């Protein structure tokens, strides 16, 4: 087990390193000169050179990459003498647009994305798994057919369509909810809940539909397993048969998919956050791409990759806890 | 000898898209206490459906007619709750594929224990002792420790031993074994058969042994029921059926056994 864990963590570090390298390479090779962008409209060639030296852009690629990497762990200094700017670890550089520390921007916005992700996850797990279970138990009934039809439809609606439709109906027409804005919990729990409700529903809808279909399929497969016949032949109560023998095998595979979906969402829900004006990592990504703010683009890419890779390892570890066939060989 | 199980004119009907189909037609046989009755037939002959009908485990939609009496009590027409009290307690069943018949997510100890406690109640600790005894009885070494193992950690033969331990943990009057040795190696087959025969002698359990393998039947059953396409084609003592088969189908079955002194056709 310890060796397995060490192997997984070594793999994780390697993958993250590769992600860093390739993202850096892409932005280094494919993007316009950042010095020109920072310099702005009233710019002299001397000023551009100055900025290049300050950011280390005059250095060869691997030196720059090394500076970036070591900055992540040890912090780095820009410039020298009186102009020295110390960027403490983990240093992701400064936004070309606002000159803010990118790390601080992320710290600022991550809670918003996490709130969006956690709320949506709770909704889609409860609704998706619940509906899927009911459908599986009542396979072939009108309930099953209606739910699965709706699930197919729901999974096919693009997020931005649903987001705009919800906004139109709930905010503009019925005026049940206020126009969505970035609200902190400290501004009042009700207002907070109201401003997150629509993003949660929008994100949860697609996932809930997929999870309902997945749960239904898994439970139906499990109910047909030989060990279910054994459980019935033992004279166990139906509740115990269902809960112990059917649910655990049926729901275990769902943890895998959930872990990955949730991790991906932590990296920011780009469309939903943008439509609802939430200042999360997703909106930060959208803004930075629009303005070609390279340090920010780099950071959100790395952050998303980090969540996905770590999420995968966490899923594997959880799975070994859930499935004895993986745990004990 | 008073009869333990009496099956009379059992008919099992399934609704299909092509109308009603009788998968078991007018089958009658009896099993005495500590007697083994074999049911033989090829796939689809209705032998498994007959045993599932006795347990009340037929798939949804199946309709049964006739009579199944266990210890003089009619089983057909009972509610599900009443059947649950009988399943495992008075009649239990072992199946063909022991690996898929055990739940991979739970230790074998728990899977035996839950059955014992469903019928007899009591603490987990008390049940744990019973589980260890049951495992020891079927020849699992170190039963206390092995009870904490998962099904995939055992060999095929051991898994079937565990199924047998589970089936017998509440000392049922009737054991239905549905092709219990089919998925096993020949050498393991012999061990399992010996174990079943030994346990039966020891506990006095009546047994219905379902198989397509005539060689297995001849070694374990006193009486044999031959089924073909849902119908009972022959019923009598093993000796009778094997030495002077009255029905063409039985003769065909017997002739289909390859013999070591057969001429090799090349």
From TrEMBL, chain A:
InterPro entries: BPD_transp_1_N (IPR045621), MetI-like (IPR000515), MetI-like_sf (IPR035906). The chain crosses the membrane at residues 9-27, 112-137, 149-170, 190-210, 250-276, 296-319. It is found in: Cell membrane. GO terms for biological process: transmembrane transport. It holds the Pfam family BPD_transp_1. Residues 110-319 form the ABC transmembrane type-1 domain. The keyword Methyltransferase does not apply. Keywords: Cell membrane, Membrane, Transmembrane, Transmembrane helix, Transport. GO terms for cellular component: plasma membrane. It is a multi-pass membrane protein. Belongs to the binding-protein-dependent transport system permease family. This is Peptide/nickel transport system permease protein.
From TrEMBL, chain B:
PANTHER family: DIPEPTIDE TRANSPORT ATP-BINDING PROTEIN DPPD, OLIGOPEPTIDE TRANSPORT ATP-BINDING PROTEIN APPD. InterPro entries: AAA+_ATPase, ABC_Ni/Peptide_Import, ABC_transporter-like_ATP-bd, ABC_transporter-like_CS, Oligopep_ABC_C, P-loop_NTPase. Belongs to the ABC transporter superfamily. CDD domains: ABC_NikE_OppD_transporters (cd03257). It comes from Streptosporangium subroseum. It is found in: Cell membrane. It is a peripheral membrane protein. This is Peptide/nickel transport system ATP-binding protein.
